[in-house]
Specification:
- By secondary structure, the chain is of the alpha+beta class.
- The protein has one domain (about 5-170): Muramoyl-pentapeptide Carboxypeptidase, domain 2 (2-Layer Sandwich).
- About 35% of the residues lie in helices and about 20% in strands.
- The protein has helices at about 5-25, 50-70, 85-90, 110-120; strands at about 75-80, 100-105, 125-135, 140-145, 155-160, 165-170.
- It has a six-stranded mixed sheet with strand order 1-2-4-3-5-6, with helices on one face.
- The chain is elongated, with a radius of gyration of 18 Å.
- The structure holds zinc ion (ZN).
- The site of zinc ion (ZN) has 5 residues, from β2.
Length: about 170
């Protein structure tokens, strides 16, 4: 093996380990990989996240851990969605769910409004958008990528009575 070949081989070994770590270690203190993807309605279309999505899911995991720390038991309604799945279930074509940075979390205790109120106080978290659903009881959280400060947009979603979803800006 030449010197260059040895360097290439060791780099491949290091990146292989880093990649393996991305799959083996859970994405957050309170959440496992199996909770970050999948679909109960269209399981046939769900695909596991790739390495880039896993990096973003880990980043979003900080925020998921923060609400879990504060409110206890929390279930994941939807987190990463591959584009085919997102399209099939009527997700927005620009949904953060497709990047791994969007999460729909369901409080087991406390209301979705309590969650929004709490997240509003957490100015240290990279929040892009928080939507709490009055009629569905989950909270959608989009996390700003990298170290960019998020938009910190807070919305309240409700059913005006005709089965549709309306959104209005919200402050505690
Ligand atoms: Zn969502």
């Amino acid at each position: 093996m030449t010197r260059d070949e040895a360097i290439v081989a060791s780099l491949a070994g290091v990146s292989g380990l880093a990649l393996a770590a991305l799959y083996v270690f859970p994405p957050a203190r309170w959440f496992g990989w199996d909770e970050t993807w999948g679909s109960t309605s269209r399981a046939d279309l769900a695909r596991p996240p790739g390495p880039m999505e896993r990096l973003r899911i880990r980043w979003a995991g900080r925020v998921a851990d923060a609400v879990r720390d504060e409110f206890g038991a929390t279930s994941v309604n939807s987190w990463y969605r591959n584009p085919e799945l997102n399209d099939a279930i009527g997700g927005s074509p620009t949904s953060f769910h497709m990047t791994g940075l969007g999460m729909d979390l369901q409080p087991a205790s406390g209301s979705s409004e309590d969650w929004a109120r709490y997240l509003h106080t957490r100015t240290d978290l990279p929040l892009d958008e928080v939507i709490w659903y009055g009629h569905k009881s989950h909270v959608h959280i989009s996390v700003a990528p990298g170290f960019a400060p998020g938009k910190r947009e807070f919305l309240y979603a409700y059913d005006p009575g005709d089965g549709s979803t309306k959104y209005s800006t919200w402050t505690p």
